[in-house]
Amino acid sequence: MNVIIDLCIVPLGVGVSVSKYVVECHNIINAAGLKSSLHAYGTNIEGEWNLVFDTVKKCHERIHEMGAPRITTTIKLGTRIDREQTMDDKIKSVKEKLSSQ
Amino acid sequence: MNVIIDLCIVPLGVGVSVSKYVVECHNIINAAGLKSSLHAYGTNIEGEWNLVFDTVKKCHERIHEMGAPRITTTIKLGTRIDREQTMDDKIKSVKEKLSSQ
Amino acid sequence: MNVIIDLCIVPLGVGVSVSKYVVECHNIINAAGLKSSLHAYGTNIEGEWNLVFDTVKKCHERIHEMGAPRITTTIKLGTRIDREQTMDDKIKSVKEKLSSQ
Amino acid sequence: MNVIIDLCIVPLGVGVSVSKYVVECHNIINAAGLKSSLHAYGTNIEGEWNLVFDTVKKCHERIHEMGAPRITTTIKLGTRIDREQTMDDKIKSVKEKLSSQ
């Protein structure tokens, strides 16, 4: 089963700057061979369910190793069985409607 | 690694009533032996990471089998390595501070 | 317009313990006269849209005053116009189906 | 108080395709003069707190007018008082660290 997720990992107890943890997660996601796209409040990832969630787990494990005692994460995730749809398809679908207004 | 999650699964394309899907997920969570607690906007679950996320996957698979072509889910999830903390501990910590005001 | 929300406010830069901030928000929500219910990963609140979001804003302002330089919050929110539904109605709807299985 | 949010509005009871509702929200956000950026699982918006949440409310009202009986929305929102930070700043901070690896 394919899944598209929006991942926002927030380490606690390590101050207010979280970008170095985002970078580390970015590397883990890339190493897993997953397609991803960074935005200002998270990272979109698409791929096979198990690989995606194993990767999220690796991000948590790595951020704890980096010294964060606590992590709180928000994930939105979508699956569909009526048809295949990529992250690009989702954006394209909106942009086409916007340009034809 | 233990995790506490807040799970909110929303089937799309099946009308506005979602309680029968929540019930089905409740049964799947119970069958997995996971501790859970229902609230008005989701279900809290605690347990070992892999078991928890395998269970979330089973919920998605089951809801698709029930006829929902598309599902969008929001999950909050927390891990910590400084100490063990259950869902009950989290609530107790707030309630103690509330009662001692 | 009435709204039911699930509110999870996370102060950053103030260590790993967040319960004292949750307590403060609880007091602000109560002072606003809003109905709320605490769970292990947030607080459910129901009420008129403007009052609810003014209250969320007051929580952010207060937590900054308490010393948190940065806050990240996750909110789920639901509105419906087909019928009135309270937080209690939502839980009751699931519990009735659970007990009649 | 400035806020950066990630907005994901999901109308229920209107089938599986939600792009026309996303387009309508996009127009409302633009008409409010707010800076926004679309991604595959939501829209990032930055601006003054009251204007941002008035706009979210207008999106809900409009989607109900378009025929959706029920809406469930997920919002992540961040405020900080230690320094000003835009959506672009957040992405730039990560991209600089990525490119210097």
UniProtKB/TrEMBL annotation, chains A, B, C, D:
<protein>
    <recommendedName>
        <fullName>Thiamine-binding protein domain-containing protein</fullName>
    </recommendedName>
</protein>
<dbReference type="GO" id="GO:0005829">
    <property type="term" value="C:cytosol"/>
</dbReference>
<comment type="similarity">
    <text>Belongs to the UPF0045 family.</text>
</comment>
<dbReference type="Pfam" id="PF01910">
    <property type="entry name" value="Thiamine_BP"/>
</dbReference>
<feature type="domain" description="Thiamine-binding protein">
    <location>
        <begin position="6"/>
        <end position="95"/>
    </location>
</feature>
<dbReference type="InterPro" id="IPR029756">
    <property type="entry name" value="MTH1187/YkoF-like"/>
</dbReference>
<dbReference type="InterPro" id="IPR051614">
    <property type="entry name" value="UPF0045_domain"/>
</dbReference>
<dbReference type="InterPro" id="IPR002767">
    <property type="entry name" value="Thiamine_BP"/>
</dbReference>
